[in-house]
Amino acid sequence: MKLQYRKYLLVTILLFNITGCFLFDDSSKPSDPIEEKVAPIALFSLSQSSGLVSLSVSFIDQSTSGTSPITTWAWDFGDGGTSQDQNPQHIFETVGTYDVSLTVTTNDGQDTSVQTNAVTVNSRVTEIKLIITGTDGRKLEGVAASSDIFTINNQQYNTENQLVLTVSENESSGVIHLSKPGYVDRILYMEGVLGSVTERVTLLERGQPIIFDANIGGNFTARDGANLQIFPGTLIHQDGTLVTGNVELYINPVDISDRVKKEAFPGSFFGIPENSQVGDAPEDIASYGAVEMSLFQNSEKLQLRENTSTLLEIPIYVTKHLNGDDIAINDVIPLWVLNEGTGIWEQQGTGKVINNSVSPTGKSLLVTTAHFSWFNTDIRVVEAEDKNNDAPACELIMTVLGAEHGNFYTRGLRIQTDDQPIYAVKEQFRYVGQQLSDFIPSKNDYEIFISGTHTSSIGEEIAVSDSKIVRCAANDPTLNVTFDLKETPLRLIDFYAENFPVLELVNGSYQINKNSILVIPYFEGADTGTITSELLDTPIFLASDQSLDIDYFAEDPNPSTVGISIAKNEVSIEETLAVQYVSEQAPQIILAYAYHQGDSTVFTWKAIGADFMEIFSTTNSQIIKIDDSVGQVIVTGYQGYEGDISLIFSNQYGESTMNVRVGQNCIPDSDFNPCP
Hints:
Blueprint (H helix, E strand, L loop, with lengths): L1 H18 L24 E3 L3 E3 L2 E7 L10 E5 L5 E2 L5 E4 L3 E11 L2 E14 L2 E9 L10 E3 L5 E6 L5 E6 L1 E10 L6 E8 L3 E6 L7 E4 L4 E4 L5 E4 L4 E2 L9 E9 L15 E3 L10 E15 L2 E2 L1 E2 L5 E6 L16 E8 L4 E12 L7 E7 L4 E7 H6 L6 E9 L6 E8 L8 E7 L5 E6 L3 E11 L5 E11 L6 E7 L1 E2 L3 E16 L2 E16 L4 E5 L6 E3 L5 E6 L6 E9 L2 E9 L8 E10 L2 E9 L3 E5 L5 E5 L3 E7 L6 E9 L2 E9 L14
Parallel strand pairs: 2-8, 9-15, 21-27, 30-36
Antiparallel strand pairs: 1-3, 3-6, 4-5, 4-7, 7-8, 9-12, 10-13, 11-12, 13-14, 16-20, 17-18, 17-45, 18-25, 19-24, 20-22, 21-22, 22-23, 22-29, 25-28, 26-27, 26-29, 27-28, 30-33, 31-32, 31-34, 34-35, 35-37, 38-39, 39-42, 40-41, 40-43, 43-44, 45-46, 46-49, 47-48, 47-50, 50-51
């Protein structure tokens, strides 16, 4: 029995030990601790918090892991970019301010750290250099630039008389407005501003206004035969009230065939056809000529009354269509109106080619319009090519050699064929090793160029470029072209030296006492060219596109010469032009117009160098003769006259004639006030 008890007792003791109740004192023995799980704490720092586009930021993980090691890192950079690296590097390519977060995870939990406004990315700042001239090729000062799209941080003229704009980079397309008192605003279209670029632009002189009575209207012809007919009582103020009294009319055509004047072409070479749907991309268009027509009263811009229209003529400056056909009377060409906010043209019907004795080609486009703006007679590039019944366009694949990764370049495309509508587009791009692609219409020669600047080992900027002439053929829908960007070679593009007689009023009549030679060189690969002439005491150094006036007197050698020399790396190019002294010059007509006023006809004109002005009817009967180069005369007895009247300006050297139209108060082929 004792043995059994002990056994029982032993069992009992073991049982108590298992349940944790000890019969013996064991308090001196420590118990095993229970470990508490600790989650991680996310924390990070960054190498920089602000900078320009393409900002590279390094992120450093400073998190603590807790009771177990960190197994994952999840970064969100706020611009759509993410990373799973512990210490990533990220490039921010878009302007903005971004929140950055880091989430770290362990077996015992996770934590997220968010830094608001952690990274601010600012626009890069670049330069647009503008070479601004008048239509005579002479550089202009005092031009101001503004834009609703591009941020212009600063604008000032440099030592080369270029207007330099400091602009924040912007990939959006838009316009820069260039303004100078006495000139038509130039609407410069830019397909984004990504890197430094130089643009040549021309401003049109606004010239003498045509003043007429809004209650009477009239038919007005200006330079190159640009014509506008205003019907009585059709003009309104901006508040919609009817305009009465005298108004000022400005008509300013753009000669797209002239090397300098074509740079006054406003806006882009993109247009929205009238049958386009909302969201359709603009199409390429090519211009036959453009004209700005605007009316003012006390500096307020006027428009036409609702449900009225007017008749205008746009001079045509080329002789062939884009497909090579001759321009003929009654040909139909689209009319476009400029959206001055976007720089894109919008189609507004079509016009018909008519004879115009004052136009340089003898032709103009007759159209109707319901408001005043910039007008453009253009053909859609693809539409013109479709008429050939061939493939309308080819895909152009461009490979660029010698480009620096990440650098900005300019790519341009322009029609090379003379006597055809002009078309020229260009854009900037960042090279990241990609091939470039585009589409070009068939049948014409196109010059494609790529240009930019590289930095030499000593920090100098070096101009690099390459260009190709390509033609799209119907049987070759894909063109592969390789551009090799190298330092721009020395090249004399053009050397312009034109002599102008200077008419001065002496003892009541105009005479020529001297000439003025306008010199403009165009070259690449050299900083300056050296201008020499026996008419100069010392050589003159000119940059490309810079102009120089040289006085030329009758007692100087005749003919005289003007030469240019450009040099680079022991290579030189020279050219010399002969200039003949001009001793006779007929008057130059700026504008002339006529309109009926009650029982009288009002004639207004402006000419340079005219001693006399005579007015003749179409029957060659003289109406009046007056000795005034700029003036106005009211003639009675011709209130019922309709047709052309000749204004003949003369001096001792010859005559100049302009025909003006009066009395045709109707619009041919129109539902509004049609001609009988």
